Known about the structure:
Number of strands: 11
Strand order of the largest sheet: 1-2-11-10-3-6-9-8-7
CATH topology of the largest domain: Rossmann fold
Helix content: 40-55%
Strand content: 15-25%
Radius of gyration: 22 Å
CATH superfamily of the largest domain: HAD superfamily/HAD-like
Amino acid sequence: MKQLLTFFYPRVTQGVALGLLLVGLNASLCSGQAVAASVTHANATLYGAHSFIETHQIEDILSHVGEKLEADTLLIFDLDNTLIEPHQLLGSDQWFEHHFKQQQAAFGKENSAALTKTVQDYDAVHLRSEVRLIDPKTQLLFQQLKQLGIKMLGLTSRGTALKEATDRQLSSVGLSFRSSWLERVQHYVLKNSKRGSAVDGIVLTGGGHKGNCLIEYLDHLKFKPSRVIFIDDKPHHLDHVKTVLEARQIPFTGIRYGFLDEKVKSFDPTITEIQLEYLSKILSDEDAQVILEARSRKALASQSSLLKDAL
């Protein structure tokens, strides 16, 4: 853990790093909490009626885990755009939203076929796709949190069809939610989602309400956390979980993780249209750009030829 903290905060002294370590492990060391507060980059931001912690730094989680660390604290991570993303734009969260709007335009907003087609394409991509960590420090953070015995879950909008693919992708970047506190828990099919289930520490909501799916699974486990910390890039998911947990009088800390905000805002679908055509190969963004530029040159040459013929 000391190695983790000095890695995250390389400019702090060894003594300060030890103070941060104690904050992360023992909430009773109030003097250390002040040290953690001095290095955190997080701020509270109001989303609708609720205020969540806003951060672009995965290591900020440490200071919030350390505030009131209890035996039954539950730390929950969203997956896509929080822990991992595809190597290419195709299959990203921002592509999913764009593709869904396209299908709604084709099938009609009220037609369930739009969502069905979007999910089918999304699943087809991820069955073939590799991923990378959003922040390289996440692997070390995960290792240390698990060594400390902190209970963790993954909570994702992915569905059961991607159960094996999700496990493969997480394993490829050194992440796992498997833990001794869940070792006797079998695969559980969610009642709150037609495409949802929970297995190996990951609740796959299948696009269902994350709050309802989470509380259903916790009830199945017969486990009431003393406190829940949830990290997600989308405020509405934080809001859903907060509302459900507060109804059960479970203390909640929501962290809105915005590391990819600028990338999401600047999303250009033209590359993904090419990649979707070559789905069986999963083209890189660079290879798709080459094809796009070649098509543009061909189209320009064709226009020039037509213009000459006209003259």
